[in-house]
Amino acid sequence: MRRRQSSLLGLLTVLLLAACAAGGDVTRPVPQRFVPAPQPAHRLVVMLPGRGDDRDSLARRGIAQLIQRQWPDADVILTGLTMPFYRQGHAVRRLRDEVIVPARARRYEQVWLAGISLGGMGALMYDRAYPGEIDGLLLISPYLGDKSIYREIQAAGGLSRWQPGPVQAFTPETYQRELWRYLQDWSGQPDRTRSVWLAYGNRERFRDRIALLAGQLPPGHAFELAGLHDWTLWKPAARILLQHAAAASTTPAEGAR
Q: What DSSP element (H or E) covers 175?
């Protein structure tokens, strides 16, 4: 009996360690990797990974160097804000407390959030929770909820006619509806959407929901590219967004800090 209990305990320990290694240990600080700008830094880009990535895989993909080739005045922070942090329910607050607020002590003129897939949703959740704190969003194939919420919006005649119902607390059961309620309001917030940039693939499984978000942005801020929901799309998508965002504003935004 004792041997069986020991074997079970060992198995549970192995599974726990594997889960932490694959997704991140929420009992520890959000993993970060700081990549300094090759020029004097005037802005910061905080990168949020997709579900299949973490801080280290972002580094291996060279996404920080890609950002800095387009924005050489940008420090980059690669984060490991992975799925376990979202499941914990405190991902956005921890991103603010452990990453954004300490970084602002360097007094950047602009702070941008960039996110891929799950990270794109995380960037939107942050902007919803802390409006006005982030100067710009770079959204690459953002995850925006299940097919059911999209069908509900379409059945209502589109996002402008959709009635989301009473406001609810942001929980695992309500986050999709509340996220789309927040995005619905963007149609009347030109100050917010002028610094939001979006790219996605024409053959990815979330295309219909992302295209709905694209309709909330100013002309020229959303790009549908050839590709699937993977890195063969995401790296060129990041390059395009950075190029267009830089061309749209060569000086700090009015609200920049």
A: helix 175-184
Residue 108 maps to a domain = yes
Strand partners, 140: 116, 199
Q: Are 181 and 167 in contact (CB under 8 A)?
A: yes
Could you tell me the residue range of the domain that residue 178 belongs to? 31-246
In this predicted structure, what is the pLDDT of residue 188?
Answer: 84
Tell me how far the alpha carbon of residue 4 is from its chain's centroid.
Answer: 44
Please report whether residue 238 resides in a domain. yes
The answer to whether residue 2 is domain-embedded is no
What's the CA gap between 121 and 225, in Å, rounded?
19
Helix, coil or strand: residue 190: helix
CB 47 within 8 A of CB 58: yes
Q: What's residue 7's pLDDT?
A: 40
- Give me the number of domains the chain comprises: 1
Structure token pair of residue 181: 């309620």
Q: Is residue 256 part of a domain?
A: no
Select from 160, 162, 180, 161 the least CA-distant residue to 170.
Answer: 180
Cα distances from 63 to residues 55, 59, 234, in angstroms, run: 11, 6, 10
- For residues 204 and 229, the answer to whether their CB atoms sit within 8 Å is yes
Dump pLDDT digits (tens) for 165-177.
999 998 889 999 9
Mean pLDDT of 205-234: 97
**Prediction pTM value:** 0.88
Q: What is the mean pLDDT of residues 70-94?
A: 96
End-to-end CA distance of the chain: 63
Judge whether residue 2 has pLDDT over 60: no
CATH no. for residue 58?
A: 3.40.50.1820
